[in-house]
User: Which sequence fits this backbone?
C-alpha cells in the first residue's frame, strides 16, 4: 500500500511518492514528469469507455472532443460530453494512479491532493469527490503554495519568513509563511486569483498573431483555436532572451507565419505580472509585513520558469529567490511529504493553514455579516446569535456566502438553508445561534439552532447548483476594484432599510400627530416611498428621513408617552 | 427598474462570540500566561507552536475525539486574539469585567475630532500617505503605552478606545486611498 502526493493542476498533473525520505516524481506520461491535464473523448462510448489522456490526447489531430483546463470548471454543474468536471478530473486521476501503480509495482490507496489556496469550499468538495471516484482516499487537501513551502522547507531547514509566488497556467496564488526551527509551517496570509495564469498570456499572443494576418477570430472554430494556442505555448517556451521565434500555422489550406519576440512577450507579460504584484501587496498588508521582513521568495508554477517573470519578482521583492526545485514538481513534492507525515503520524512537519476567503451570512438588506475572516488559522469555530426581523416570523432563511465584498450578491453563494418551526412571537425574542466551523481541509460546516426551543438545522456544505461562470469570477480582485461601488450600494441599502423602518413607525403613529404636521409628514412619506426604489437616491432618502425627523422632533416626547401608555414596551435589562 | 436588494433574509444580528461565551474563557491561561496586556509575542508563538504540535488534528489518528479537535480550535482562536493588539486589549478588559466604552473623555474625543478634520483638509496623495504613516505611528505609541498602563484600568480603557477608533479610521482612510487611484 502506498500513499502519494498529487498536484492536480489546470494545465498539468504531477504525482510524487516518498523514496528513502525524499520526494520523487513518478513519470507516468511518456517518461515525462508532468501529465498534461487534457482528456480526449473521441473514442468514448458506453461499450468501450476508451478515454485518452495527457500527451496522447494532445497528439490527436481533432480537438473537438478534447477537454482542457477542466480545473477551471470544478464546482460548477456544467457538463462536457455528458461528464461532470468531477468525473473528468477523476479520469485524469485514475490515469496517473494506474500508471504509477504499474511503475511502482504497488497499490496506491491514499493521497494528499493539492488545491489552489483560493479554491472555494465548493471547489474543494468537488476535488475530494473526483479523488474518491478515482478510488483514492484523500488524507488531506492542502493548499498549493503551502505544499511548495513544505518541499522547500524540508530541503533547507532554515527558520524564517518566506513568500511563495505561485504563478501557474491557470491560477495565481501568493502566500506568506513562517517556518519555525522545529518544522512548523504557519501560514500568515494568503491571496490569489483563480483566473489569472499563463493561459491569459497565450490567448493574447494568439490574438495578436491572428490580427496580424487579418484573420477574423470569430471565423475560427474552437478546435482550431486550441491548435493555435498550443503552437503559441510551445513558441513561448522556446522564446529565450534575444531571438525571434517563428512557426507555421496551417489554417484553411493556407500557411501563416506566427511569431513571438522576446520584447513582445515581456510587454504582454508585464500587464499580468503587475496584477500578481497587486495581489502580493494585499497579502503583505494582511500579514502586516513589508518586503524587507521576508527571507526569500519561493518560485512555484510553470510561469516562473520564464526569465521575464523571474527577473520581475527578483526586482520587486529584492532579496533571495529560491528556484532550485523544479517549479513544476515542487507542489507534488510537498503533497507527498505531507501524505507521508500523516500516514506515519510523523509530525516533524506540522502545517497550520488559514481560511483563504472570508465567510459570512447575508443579513437584512443584502449586506454580509462576516463571520470567519480571511487568514484565520484553521481549524476554527465562530458563533453568532441572530434574531427575527418581523413579529410572528416562524422561519429564517440563511444564505452563506464567501468573498470580501460588502454586498451578498457580489460574493460567491456557498449554500442556502432554512430554519423553520420557530414559535410565533414578537420580533427580537427568538435567539438563533449560528455556528460556522472549518476543519483542517478548509471545509465548512454550518449549524443553526433556536435556543428557546432547541430547533436545530445542520448542514455540511454541498456544491450548490446553478453556479454560473459569472459567479466564478475572482472575488478578491473584484473587492479591491469595486470599493467605491460597494460603498454606494451599502449606502443605498442602509438608507432603504432605515427608511422602511421609519415609514412603518410613522404610519403607525400618524393618527396621534396634530394636523399641520400630520399633513407634512404624510407628504414626505409619499415622496419617500417614491424614491425608495431608486438606487441613485440614497442621499435624497436620508435627507427626507431627516426632514421627517425634524418635524417629529417638535412633539416627539408627547408621542412617546402616548405610545407607551397605549402599548407598554418592556425594556430588557442590559446584561452585565 | 431593477431592484435586486429585496429584504430576502430576515435576520438581525444580536451578538457575536466564540464557541463558548468569551467572558467564560481566559485566553491567557490557555498559554499559561498571567492575565496581562504585556506579552512577549515571540514567546507566545513558541508556546502556540508547542501546543499545536500536541493538539493539532494531524497529530492524532482518525478517531481523535471532539474534545481534541476543540483544543486545537481554541488555540487558534486564542492565538489570533492575543496577537492582535486591539482584540487583546478588549479581552484583557473583559476579564476585568470591563469593556471599551464609546463615550470617551474630552481630551481623547478632541484628538479624534482633530484627526478627522485634518484628514478632510488633505488633498495630495503624498499628504495622505504621510497622514496614514502618522496614524500608524500613533497606534504603535498607544500599544506601547497600553503595556505600561494596565494597572490603571480607567486610563487603559481610554487608550484602548482611542486605539480602536484609530484602527477603524485607518481602514477607512486606506480604503479611500486605494479607490482613489
Assistant:
Amino acid at each position: 500500500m502506498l500513499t502519494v502526493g498529487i498536484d492536480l493542476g489546470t494545465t498539468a498533473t504531477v504525482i510524487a511518492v516518498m523514496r528513502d525520505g525524499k520526494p520523487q516524481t513518478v513519470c507516468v506520461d511518456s517518461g515525462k514528469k508532468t501529465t498534461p491535464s487534457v482528456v480526449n473523448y473521441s473514442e468514448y462510448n458506453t461499450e468501450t469507455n476508451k478515454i485518452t489522456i495527457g500527451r496522447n490526447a494532445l497528439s490527436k489531430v481533432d480537438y473537438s472532443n478534447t477537454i482542457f483546463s477542466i480545473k477551471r470548471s470544478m464546482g460548477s454543474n456544467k457538463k462536457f460530453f455528458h461528464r461532470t468536471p468531477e468525473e473528468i478530473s477523476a479520469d485524469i486521476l485514475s490515469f496517473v494512479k494506474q500508471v504509477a501503480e504499474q511503475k511502482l509495482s504497488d497499490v496506491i490507496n491514499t493521497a494528499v491532493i493539492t488545491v489552489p489556496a483560493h479554491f472555494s469550499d465548493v471547489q474543494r468538495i468537488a476535488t475530494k469527490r473526483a479523488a474518491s471516484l478515482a478510488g483514492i482516499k484523500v488524507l488531506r487537501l492542502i493548499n498549493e503554495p503551502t505544499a511548495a513551502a513544505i518541499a522547500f522547507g524540508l530541503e533547507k531547514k532554515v527558520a524564517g519568513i518566506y513568500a511563495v509566488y505561485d504563478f501557474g497556467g491557470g491560477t495565481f496564488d501568493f502566500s506568506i509563511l513562517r517556518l519555525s526551527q522545529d518544522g512548523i509551517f504557519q501560514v500568515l496570509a494568503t491571496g490569489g486569483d483563480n483566473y489569472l495564469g499563463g493561459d491569459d498570456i497565450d490567448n493574447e499572443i494568439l490574438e495578436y498573431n491572428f490580427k496580424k494576418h487579418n484573420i477574423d477570430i470569430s471565423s475560427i472554430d474552437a478546435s482550431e483555436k486550441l491548435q493555435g494556442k498550443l503552437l503559441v505555448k510551445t513558441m513561448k517556451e522556446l522564446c529565450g532572451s534575444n531571438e525571434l521565434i517563428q512557426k507555421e500555422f496551417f489554417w484553411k489550406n493556407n500557411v501563416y507565419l506566427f511569431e513571438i519576440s522576446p520584447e513582445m512577450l515581456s510587454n504582454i507579460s508585464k500587464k499580468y505580472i503587475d496584477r500578481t504584484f497587486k495581489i502580493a501587496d494585499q497579502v503583505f498588508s494582511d500579514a502586516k509585513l513589508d518586503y524587507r521582513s521576508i527571507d526569500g521568495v519561493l518560485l512555484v508554477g510553470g510561469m516562473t520558469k520564464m526569465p521575464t517573470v523571474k527577473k520581475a519578482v527578483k526586482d520587486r521583492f529584492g532579496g533571495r529567490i529560491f528556484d532550485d526545485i523544479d517549479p513544476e514538481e515542487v507542489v507534488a513534492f510537498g503533497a507527498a511529504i505531507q501524505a507521508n507525515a500523516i500516514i506515519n503520524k510523523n509530525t516533524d512537519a506540522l502545517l497550520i493553514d488559514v481560511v483563504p476567503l472570508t465567510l459570512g451570512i447575508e443579513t437584512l438588506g443584502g449586506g454580509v455579516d462576516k463571520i470567519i475572516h480571511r487568514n484565520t488559522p484553521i481549524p476554527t469555530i465562530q458563533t453568532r446569535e441572530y434574531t427575527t426581523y418581523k413579529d410572528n416570523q416562524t422561519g429564517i432563511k440563511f444564505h452563506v456566502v464567501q468573498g470580501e465584498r460588502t454586498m451578498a450578491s457580489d460574493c460567491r453563494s456557498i449554500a442556502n438553508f432554512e430554519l423553520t418551526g420557530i414559535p410565533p412571537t414578537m420580533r427580537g425574542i427568538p435567539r438563533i445561534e449560528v455556528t460556522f466551523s472549518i476543519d483542517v481541509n478548509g471545509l465548512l460546516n454550518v449549524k443553526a439552532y433556536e435556543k428557546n426551543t432547541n430547533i436545530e438545522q445542520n448542514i455540511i456544505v454541498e456544491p450548490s447548483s446553478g453556479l454560473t461562470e459569472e459567479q466564478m469570477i475572482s472575488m478578491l480582485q473584484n473587492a479591491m476594484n469595486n470599493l467605491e461601488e460597494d460603498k454606494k450600494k451599502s449606502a443605498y441599502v442602509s438608507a432603504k432599510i432605515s427608511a422602511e423602518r421609519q415609514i412603518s413607525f410613522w404610519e403607525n403613529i400618524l393618527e396621534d400627530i396634530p394636523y399641520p404636521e400630520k399633513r407634512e409628514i404624510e407628504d414626505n412619506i409619499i415622496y419617500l416611498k417614491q424614491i425608495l426604489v431608486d438606487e441613485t437616491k440614497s442621499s435624497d432618502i436620508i435627507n427626507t428621513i431627516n426632514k421627517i425627523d425634524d418635524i417629529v422632533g417638535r412633539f416627539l416626547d408627547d408621542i412617546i408617552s402616548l405610545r407607551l401608555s397605549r402599548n407598554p414596551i418592556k425594556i430588557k435589562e442590559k446584561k452585565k | 427598474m431593477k431592484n435586486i436588494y429585496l429584504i430576502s433574509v430576515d435576520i438581525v444580528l444580536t451578538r457575536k462570540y466564540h464557541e463558548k461565551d468569551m467572558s467564560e474563557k481566559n485566553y491567557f491561561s490557555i498559554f499559561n500566561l498571567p492575565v496581562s496586556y504585556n506579552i512577549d509575542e515571540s514567546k507566545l508563538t513558541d508556546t502556540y507552536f508547542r501546543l499545536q504540535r500536541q493538539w493539532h488534528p494531524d497529530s492524532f489518528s482518525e478517531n481523535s475525539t471532539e474534545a481534541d479537535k476543540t483544543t486545537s480550535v481554541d488555540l487558534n482562536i486564542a492565538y489570533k486574539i492575543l496577537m492582535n493588539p486591539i482584540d487583546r486589549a478588549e479581552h484583557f478588559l473583559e476579564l476585568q469585567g470591563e469593556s471599551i466604552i464609546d463615550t470617551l473623555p474630552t481630551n481623547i474625543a478632541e484628538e479624534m475630532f482633530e484627526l478627522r478634520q485634518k484628514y478632510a483638509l488633505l488633498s495630495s496623495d503624498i499628504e495622505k500617505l504621510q497622514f496614514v504613516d502618522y496614524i500608524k505611528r500613533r497606534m504603535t505609541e498607544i500599544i506601547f503605552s497600553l503595556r505600561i498602563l494596565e494597572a490603571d484600568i480607567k486610563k487603559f480603557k481610554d487608550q484602548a478606545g482611542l486605539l480602536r477608533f484609530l484602527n477603524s479610521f485607518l481602514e477607512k482612510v486606506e480604503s479611500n486611498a486605494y479607490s482613489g487611484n
Strands of chain B lie at 11-17. Helices of chain B lie at 27-30, 41-55, 66-83, 85-95, 106-121, 125-149, 153-180. Residues 40 and 127 of chain B are 35 Å apart (CA to CA).
